[in-house]
Structures are given as structure tokens and as C-alpha cells.
Design brief:
Two copies of one chain form a homodimer. By secondary structure, chain A is mainly alpha-helical. Chain A is built from eleven helices and three strands. Chain A folds into two domains: 3-70, Winged helix-like DNA-binding domain superfamily/Winged helix DNA-binding domain (Arc Repressor Mutant, subunit A); 74-224, Four Helix Bundle (Hemerythrin (Met), subunit A), CATH 1.20.120. The two termini of chain A are 40 Å apart. Chains A and B meet through α1, α3, α4, α5 and α8 of A and α1, α3, α4, α5 and α8 of B. The first copy, chain A, binds a DNA duplex through α3.
Chain lengths: 231, 231
Amino acid sequence: MKTHQLVLAWIETELSEGRLAVGGRIPAERSLAEQLKVSRTSVREAIRILEAMGVVRAGVGSGPEAGTVVISDPTAALGSALRLHVATQHLPVEDIVETRVLLESWAVSHAKPGSPQLAVATRLLGEMDAEAVSVDEFLALDVRFHLALADAAGNAVVSAMMGSLRESITGYASRLTGNLPDWDATAARLRVEHHGILAAVQDHDGDRAARLVADHIEGYYKEAGLASGGT
Amino acid sequence: MKTHQLVLAWIETELSEGRLAVGGRIPAERSLAEQLKVSRTSVREAIRILEAMGVVRAGVGSGPEAGTVVISDPTAALGSALRLHVATQHLPVEDIVETRVLLESWAVSHAKPGSPQLAVATRLLGEMDAEAVSVDEFLALDVRFHLALADAAGNAVVSAMMGSLRESITGYASRLTGNLPDWDATAARLRVEHHGILAAVQDHDGDRAARLVADHIEGYYKEAGLASGGT
DNA sequence: CTTAGAGTGTGGTTAGACCACAGGGGATCC
DNA sequence: GGATCCCCTGTGGTCTAACCACACTCTAAG
């Protein structure tokens, strides 16, 4: 077993046993190194991994915001991992889109009617209806709208996976907009479809919402020309 | 931007541009450090992150198996990330099980009839039918059976997510078996259900397969007493 | 031709040093 | 006495230099 894994194991145990919780602070690198009888380098390697996994956040200086504190951002971990594996071209973009459709269909059909995320989604739709929004702003709002819908189902794992899927193909998706023949027409259609989806969710018509969201996503990628093997 | 992120960005670019591919080798740590004008420490931190993400594998010594080579094991990344976040108790086990049900239901209903993974699943069922298998062996075969089913859908992202979900709660699941009143009876029931699921898949009856697999998983966790907030 | 040894290059680990940063508390000034 | 400024301390961030264990490869001895 490598040295840094020993540090990882120690921290994971502290988390499992409840001695470390979100918001808490990990011992300083130098103290931890001394305590575990390893070098500071090894401690740092472990902390780097945790940082990449969205489990801790490192901050220099002193005071309450400094030091290495425990957070919980599963989306960060899954997102960067997926992005890297997409880069290796061992995770086809088509599979990511397909997975997104399946997760999001499930999410809207299981949305909790009273979820505050639905109000958020409604507000985001209002912002998207404004005429002044640019393409990039529209896309950013679109991402947040879909994530809000996914969150409304109340499943943290599904939410995290949805977020990471979006993150991993954000760059790809924004390149796709260049393929659209008429952005304004597309945007208008997307707005209408968004309202339809949200209405179905609020009518507690999960099946209709699932169907609409699947058509919505697949229709967009088809129009933008999801190329297999594009540059 | 931190130094190790520069190294990460360089490697990710090399992957995206196709200059690095799975099976290829990353420059030696010392050369890369010199090339990018950073210290070997920073290079190592970046490589550690990639290793934790399942993107590279580091091997000492010399020869074809040595050095840092590019691999692609998305399951490793997602699995350890999920496990850590479960440890922080910000990802409820219930949500993981629910997500597993939704992914696996989709997978069996979209299984490709000709997939060789179905033959693998059949063989695994045969091994599980043997009388001599211990509890641990049975569970290990069970995991492989379900993963084979998920692979049969041919979606790499869904396969990776399924694998990581299983990995993240393996420890939890094996503790659950202690709650079962009568293991032999449960095992017998699981065997029957497995054959039923596989038969439905091979009959191209995706809906029935999805329903059976959902009942199968939920039934097991219910019998074993999926405790919310257990130690 | 076989085999034992030295050589070479790889990642693994450590120690020690220096830097930039940000807060805290004491010294100073009004 | 109160407000202000500045040094001190502790944090993570980075780098250098050295040594180790390992596994192959080449060489020279048998």
C-alpha cells in the first residue's frame, strides 16, 4: 500500500466514524504528517486527491476560511472524471447524452410537487423569456433550469450525476450551437418546450413530463447535429 | 491557477488532441517536469489525481509494463468518489439504491439481444446454482451478474455508473446480509428471480425485465432491512 | 550458449527550505 | 481610553536534492 493511500484511509475513517464532518477542518498538513509518521509530501498527495474529488477545499492564510475544510461536492468529482474519460475517447458523447435523457426523464417523472426547486425552475424560465439574453446566457440558464428540474426529484445521487454529465459535455454542447441554422427559431422552440415540461411536472403528469423532456433533449441534439467522431 | 493544474491541463490537452491515447505512455516525471518548467512534485500531484480518476496507471521498474501509462477505468473514479461522499453522509444510501434501480431497469429494458454479456450472465447464473458456493462467493457472483446485465445495454456511461454504485456500497451490502433471517431461503429466491430476469431479457420483453429487476433489488434491500441512519 | 552480475531508468518517499497569504494581537499614536 | 498600524504566527504552495526499491537490459564470465 502506498503511503498516500494510508493518509486517504485515515481521513476516510475519520469521516465514516463521524469525527470529521462537512464544515470541519482537517489537521494542518505538517501536524498530520507527524501524527501519521509520513512525510508532508504524502499528506499533500492525499489531500490533492480529496480536493479533486470535491471532498475538501484548501485555503491559505489563517482564520475561519483558511486551512483544509471538509465540503461535499460530488458533482465536481464525477464531472472532472467524466470529462477526462471523454477526452480519452473511451466514453462516447452519444452515451452521455443517452444517459442524460434517461436520468432526466426519471427525475421529472419523480419530481416532488412541493419542491422549492420547481419555483427556481419557474423563475429561470422567466429570465430566459427576456429578449435581451445572449446565446451564452441562454445556455447557462438552460443548464440551471434542467438541473433545478433534476433536483426536484430529491435524489442527491441523480442530481450529482446530472450535474456532472452536463459539466462533462458543456464545451461540446456550446460548440454544437454553431451548427444551428437559425438560433432564434431554436431558442423560441426551446422556450415553448420548457414551459410544456414544467407544466406537465406541475400537473403531476410524470409520464407526459418524461416524454416531453426526452423529446426536448434528443430533438436539440438532432437539430444541432450530434456528430459521431467530430473534431 | 495552481501549478499541478497546469500539468493536468497539459495532459488533458494531449488526450483531447489524440497525441496521448489509451495504452500510450506519459513522459517520465522528471522529463515532464523539465519540459513544463515545474517541479517534479507538481507533476506527481497531477499524476496522482489522474491515477485516482482511473486515467493512468503508474508502474515502477522498466520495460513495457513500467512507467505511467494511460488507461481508462471510469468506474474507479466514480466509485471512490461516491464512496467518499457516502462517508461524509451527504449521499444517502437510499438514494444510491434508488439510482441503481433506475439505471439497472433501463439497462435490462435496453439490453442488446446479441450482446456477449448475456452469455456471460448465463454462465454466472450457472456458477451461482452450484450448492457449494459460500455467501461471499454468491455475493461476488451476484455483483458480476448484475454488471454483465448492465453492460448488455451497450452504454459505457451507464455501465460505469452501475459499477461505481455497486462499489460504493459493497461494504454496506455485505453488512446487510447479517440481517437476513434465513440466508439459504433468500439465496434460493434470488436464484429464481435471476433466471426470471434473464429469461425476460432474452425474450426481448424489456418492460417485464425492468419490472422484475426493480422488484428484485428493492425486495432484497427491504428483506435485509435497509436502515436509514444505521451505524 | 548459459548465466550471474552491474548498469540504467522508472516511480516512491523523505527532508528541508522558502514563499505568499491572511488573520490576530500587541505596540503605538491620537 | 480608544483607534490604528504593523509585526508575528500559522496556513497551504512550491521547489530542490537526495535516496530507495524495483524491473528490465546489457555485459562479461563461466
